[in-house]
Specification:
8-stranded parallel β-barrel; 14 helices
Length: 337
């Protein structure tokens, strides 16, 4: 099982590799993309990208020196006809630099790039929203070697896909940055915080009224208020517990560390750390956390011991107990039975 880590700066590659990451993924928005399209939609992220091919070349060289690989993200849901050509040009230059894999969400682009660049591996982004064996087979037929599952796919579903379609690797999220909506059906982009951030961070003020114009009863108003408060609480967890960390810098927020034993038994090939825009310190702490858990799983520790270790890493027992922080809440539900 490989640990997949995000990078947005070349200088991050070496320390993250030394901390235990096996694969890196990054975005690239070259200046000519901005000049031609006046848009930043090369990969859904306006920030957290490399901007020069020289940096991409350095990232590949440093990763390979540490026996790690680099995947380039081209996972906008849609590209215009002109942008398809530009994306193919980026892919071609990435291949010429010795890059390893492309992360694609547009299935037409997947087929085109897998045909044109057979030496590159093709990974299907979670944004493609492929969540069953039939979708996995289609991706394989279109040239993909790996399927990155959406965040809300369960452990049983992941294991079932891996068993039914053994000739495609499965990658699953394990740490950081949950999505409020189904990301493949969300057509917003993640603006930087100073520009408002993602739309799901908006703080709406709700005013309830009955369709017939009558007043909402005090009892119903109180229940609605409780529901709104609980929703706000859930949002806080999904956004990494307010992007908080321990004094040592370990990040709180969406987490699947307790599920690593089950993911490994389910033949999941790679586990993904989210957060390309995050500070380097958060990425480094994340890789160390995942590595420390995975090493225990590889040494044969039983599930209960791994779970106890993972929950005490930050510590996060109180947060875990809410279930709002879990990528795979079925682990704790099974324990509670």
């Amino acid at each position: 099982m490989r640990i997949v880590a995000p990078v947005s700066r070349v200088a991050e590659i070496e320390p993250l590799a030394q901390a235990g990451a096996n694969e890196f993924y990054c975005g690239l928005v070259p200046p000519d993309w901005l000049g031609r399209f006046h848009a930043i939609n090369a990969n859904r992220r306006p920030s957290g990208n490399l901007t020069r091919y020289e940096d991409l070349a350095s990232a590949i060289d440093i990763a390979h020196a540490h026996e790690a690989t680099v995947s380039l993200v081209l996972n906008a849901q849609h590209y215009s006809a002109a942008q398809i050509g530009a994306a193919e040009e980026i892919a071609g230059r990435f291949a010429a630099l010795g890059g390893d894999a492309l992360i694609i969400s547009d299935l037409g682009l997947l087929h085109a790039l897998s045909t044109r660049f057979p030496a590159l591996r093709m990974h299907v982004s979670s944004v493609a929203t492929c969540r069953n064996a039939g979708a996995a087979r289609l991706c394989r037929e279109l040239g993909a070697q790996r399927l990155i599952l959406p965040r809300d796919v369960t452990l049983a579903e992941a294991a079932s896909i891996a068993a039914e379609v053994p000739d495609i690797e499965i990658e699953a999220f394990v740490l950081n940055d949950g999505c409020i909506f189904e990301e493949g059906a969300c057509h917003t982009i993640h603006l930087p915080g100073q520009l408002g951030g993602p739309i799901c961070l908006d703080r709406f003020e709700y005013r309830y009224r009955r369709r017939d114009g009558s007043d909402v009863s005090p009892r119903l108003a109180a229940r609605l208020q409780e529901n709104d408060a609980e929703y706000e609480r859930w949002l806080w967890y999904r956004f990494s517990c307010g992007f908080s960390t321990t004094p040592e810098g370990l990040p709180y927020g969406p987490c699947g560390l307790c599920a690593v034993p089950a993911l490994r038994r389910g033949r999941v090939a790679a586990i993904k750390i989210a957060g390309r825009e995050a500070p380097t310190a958060r990425k480094l702490a994340s890789v160390r956390m995942v590595r420390s858990v995975l090493d225990r799983v590889r040494c044969g520790e039983d599930d209960a011991d791994v779970r106890e270790f993972a929950m005490k890493l930050r510590p996060s027992e109180a947060h875990c107990a809410t279930g709002y922080m879990c990528y795979y809440p079925e682990v704790l539900r099974a324990e509670a039975r």
